[in-house]
Amino acid sequence: MRALARRRCEALCAAGVLLASAALLALPAGAPALTLDPRSIRSATLTNGLRLVVCEDQAASVVSVGVVVRAGSADESPAESGIAHLLEHICWVGAADSDPREAIEEVGGYTNAGTLRDFTRYYAIVQPADFARSLQALGDMLLRDEFDAAAISRQRSLILSEAASRMDRPRAALNDLAFASLYGDAHPYGRHIEGTEQTLSRVTSASLSRFHRTWYVPNNMAVIVAGKVGFDAALAEVKRVFGGLAPAALPPRSRPPMPRPAEGGEVVVEAPVQEAYLMAAFVGPAISEPMAVASSDVLATLLAHPQMGRLARELRDRRALVKAIGVDFLTQRERGLFGVWAVCEPATIPAAQEAIAAELARAASQPLAAGELASAKRLLASDYAFANETAGDRAGSLGFYEAIDTYRTASQYLGLVHAVTAEQIAATAAWYAGKPVWVVIKPAGGDQ
Amino acid sequence: MRPGLLLLGLALVASAAFAEEPVRVVLPNGMRLIAKPDPGTEIVALDLLLDVSAADEPDDKVGIRLLTQRLLLRGTRNESGDSMAQRLVAAGASADVSVGLDYVELYVLAPADAFTLALAALADVVRAPAFLPEEVDRQKEGAAELAQQSLTDPFQAAYLALRQGLYPGDPYSRPTLGTPSSLRSISREDVIAFHGKHYRPGRTVLAVCGGLGAARAIRAARAAFGDWPAGTVPERHPGPASAPSPDILVRELPTRQAHLLLGSPAPAAGQPGYCALQVLDALLSGGASARLPKLLRERLGLAYDVSSFYPTLAGPSHFGLYVVTDPYQVEAARAAVVGLLKALAREPVSSPDLERAKRYLLGSNALAHQRMKDQAYSFAWYEILALGWDFDRRYADGIRAVTADQVQEAAQALLGGLLIALAMPME
User: Fold this and answer.
1) Which of A29, A293, A445, B154 is a good FRET partner for A426, with 20 to 30 A between their CA atoms?
2) A265-443: what fold?
3) Yes or no, beta carbons of B289 and A60 under 8 Å apart
4) CA-CA distance, B394 to B409, in Å (whole number)?
5) Which residue among B89, B113, B370 places its CB closest to the CB of A392?
6) pLDDT tens, A160-203?
7) Smallest Cα–Cα separation from A109: which of A136, A90, A134?
8) Full residue range of the structural domain in which residue B404 is found
């Protein structure tokens, strides 16, 4: 069956978050990295400040072209929470009389868009011959200046109906709850990306235009191209579509780093779910703390690899305390969330919490078994190779880094992961062995 | 009528996608090997397809292919299933199986530097499965559960009903995964005999795509499979040449929506008319602005899920049109779909519409080959279909050559044999 409803809103999709997280994983040192090989990547900055990154692969059968706008839900004021995501919906579907997606889909291409806390991304995957057409379509999505009220109301109801069925995907709901509980009002990461009914109802054509004018400016955007396309050809097309835009001063964006909560806590929500979902949420490192990021990724693999991880083998396989267990850690511009999650029977919640805490304490206090560190690095490396297999995957990774830091971070970061030592793992685990904020979603009336 | 420059551009793109030439070798035991190197990747996909089709399943052992396939990964005469799984995971590799109407599949994805381990595991699994008694019992239950899910899935239920109408008594009319009762009636001895008879090198194609040289891949595969005894490849009995039954085929299911399926006999893969029907498929449901979604979703608001499909099959295939709609709107939806087909049968499509459908097909075909796994599967699958591993290249030429008249004829032929299948609540 051909999938007709292709849109997958990444902001609302836990799987999207996990995939992005895989992009942070690393290659083994020694052999030269083929995926995202720095020698195959070139970049340029247009005079208006727009960045272009091209990862050329003449063996690819397609080209992926995307635009990242360095504005996400963290750039909203509390009163306009959800506006970045709503704007993305409206831009992506186009105005009433012209749907830019059609230019991509009618040639068999694929397009999607997504909003995260730090950035918004629009992209297409097409045959190389359709590169210019798809870049133009992305330009048509982004370079708007009017947003009619009917489109706002249509997309608002769509977003709200998606939000209303949130508990149908308890893992995503658990992630939302963890961000809200850990960051609270202290940091914009605490607000839901999709906003609330109240904040969305306040969005008007004028406020959308203001957000768009402020952030959708060339010096705040990057075009990412991967696949079968030459750098010069890409540059010429990007100049044609985006070269005429005028740059604009960006608002200041400095916030104090998110502190580590002094004490833990527990937030329990009852919902129409079949099983209990729980997470130990911690403040993790920011992209500006690259060694800690690399170390956290290795630790996450060591603990939570679905087959080889300690948590999976001990809690799921040996003791059968949980049905599924893992770690969510998405590196972001600022300090992101490191969460150990599990799915279990409601009656098992306390035992699962105790066992997770014990495994974190063990990672902090006991030296790694011989080979365990090397094995975790190897698993990271192969995950990374598979997560960056296609042109679309590679454009996604480069865009991700370019949005929160620079695309070069990918290459530098690989060496860091290889350099992670057993001592650093212990130190990182000690950071997470403190008191977490526990969040729990469980069936109503499931008191033990 | 043909914009020559545009077509030339597409032709260049299509051929350049195969910059590194694949190598095809047939071993003395009959096994076919295809290797395509890709210097830009550090992963490798090993996809092994066997020409073991629904027609090979004994009438009272439907589902034996699913059970056999699942058991392959659960231990060989040399190593337990857990131990092998552990070694593959530790190397960053994964393995899985699948079952289609025309073939069974077994594949391993691995980092290219784990190719040797991946190939050895694949060869061991397909040549020396242990079929341990306790695993047979366990996998029987797992397979029965899968089969049950498929039987109660509304699309699958309607689709099975349609195939039963289109192919009465033919292997294509059976549930691909079997039924819980047919699966439970299969013994360990049945599986061993089935594997011994049908899993032969003469029926096997292995395609290797990824970050290693073709010569090395072929050499290693030859070493791993060269001494696999050829045995005798059994003749396949042809299905009965039966006429479709003209009934409306209704399956009662406790669903909220009605799942309406209209279907008609259609050419086998690569046969005359194959490409014209592909174009017709794209005209009807290639993209959100194609005719089916435009009419049923946007103009009439009758359905959100609506599409057409045309399976590429070794034997006589079928063309389907699928609509999920309110039970009270079934007749309106049916009339709308038939109306669309009649319009296509009445007069040839316009040149821009025809070209758009072709570009859609070629574009989505390129997108479907992005992963090493997809490329390996495509090579092996077209070999199994007796079209040759390079069918994909000729496919593009075939699509470009389709005329508006041929699309019109294809629509007329569909209308002549349309059956209706329905899975819906009866209240």
Assistant:
1) A29
2) Cytochrome Bc1 Complex; Chain A, domain 1 (3.30.830)
3) no
4) 22
5) B370
6) 988 887 888 899 999 999 999 999 888 999 999 999 999 999 99
7) A134
8) 248-424
